[in-house]
Amino acid sequence: MSQNSDIVVDRAKSQWSDLWKKEDYWAIWLGLFILAVALCVVMSNRPSLDAKSGPLLNTIAQEKSKPFKTIEFYQAKDDLKKVAGKDVSFLKTVLGFLATPGAWHSNPLDSLYLSEEAAKQANAKIQPKLDELKKAEADALANAKTAQAAAADVMFKDEALNAKASEAIEAWQKAKGATGKVAKKIKKPFNRYGSLIGLGLGLGVLVTIGACFMGYNPVKFFLGFLGVYVVCVLAQIMGKQDVMKGWGMNAEIWSIIIGMLIANTIGTPKWLKYSAQVEYFIKTGLVLLGADVLIYKLMAIGIPGIFVAWVVTPIVLVCTYIFGQKVLKIPSPTLNIVISADMSVCGTSAAIATAAAAQAKKEELTLSIGLSLTFTAIMMVVLPAIIRACGMPEILGGAWIGGTIDATGAVAAAGAFVGPKAMQVAATVKMIQNVLIGVTAFFVAIYFTTKVHKQAGEKVGAMEIWHRFPKFVLGFLGVSIICSIICSNLGADTATILIENGTNKVGGAFRGWFFALAFVAIGLTTNFRELKSYLKGGKPIILYICGQSFNLLLTLLMAWFMFYKVFPEITAKI
Fold this sequence. Notes:
By secondary structure, the protein is mainly alpha-helical. The protein is 79% helix and 1% strand. 45% of the residues are buried.
């Protein structure tokens, strides 16, 4: 038997032990554990949730038969939004512990504690405006009721009265939306000190269990994790400063900045670096991300969104990689593919999956993520401004944002700047694009194993490709498929209550913390001198700018063509 065959056999024998010794698998187990607990809690409380939602769904179904959306229809819809699995007592408590620091302006401690008196003082400036809007909303509702009653008196058979009622109801909805925007600014008292301490200890125990099986010293890992967590909380606080947040300097960017400042000034202590496990944290977050990639949600905007995400993205990825290799002649193909995937697919999530598949160096991943976060902060401010200045339709602007801005959270924020329809389309396009994380990792693993890293005369079999393939991607895809099947069996309305506004709210909150921990760990383990050689000649920056420029142009063209030329009937229904 040849040496290569012996290696393959040894790898095959180690597959079972990998299930509890490798971080890829522990990322899957932790993600599944969190989601499974949340799902069990939600499902055990389903009878009470169904009792609340049942009458509302019946009202909505009855009102749909009328020639326009009635007051009762909208009221039932609003009440249905208040029925959510996340409000189950246990999950509500868990989400309280998972809450991040609050916003602040001049005193960082305001992000951790807000007294009732301070909340009243802050709200004093907002309350008069809110009261004024509430009165306008009440007047609009009264007008809508009068108009609807007039239409109902003739059994909704008078088209003129129906149109008048519909117009009055739309005016009421607009007034209600204005009230809601201001109401969101009302501050409620909170105390984050206890919850953040409890969260740190709880997360520490959770990740240390996996670390112990992977061969780490549990005491050293737990103490080191607490240090990483403290830095993470500091970054979260900095990311909530009003001015910084407005400029796109979010917690993710601060996580890397603070971590790098520590690493490149006093130096990251060994006890802290011991637990700064970038891939362990971010892979767990990516598995949790799979729960948000629901197939029935992907079809919400139909074929146009699929074309924007699944046709443009591979073209941009391949073209950018070829441009980096043939034109810029970037020395490292792994750096090239990680930046190309990061920029074209969905930012840091795609970067970590691609880096694992291509076996990229840590410094290459760090550089890619740094570029992604920097340009994401810029684009989430600039792109909505361009869309609004040009008078671009909301749906087109949303598709453009969803297909080009890297981070999912930044996509939702940028879409919200443009409008509610833009946010819906942007988030859905990005969700469709997220599916490509696993697909990209799969093909990158095949390409780099059989072409880039293949030695002369070496025979590469399926076992070698499997060895290279990042296993946590299977967790991401598996969670997505399982949650999609559950949702399809529940039906759209029940799935929204139990899964989207229940299980996934908990999973999403945990995911946010795991990603934040990963970004801090990246900063703590990165030395500027190690990055210097990769930035030589500015080629990575040129690659990112050129690739993103191509991405912006092609995505806009595809979105316009699909939404407004090929499938205008689908666009009209959004």
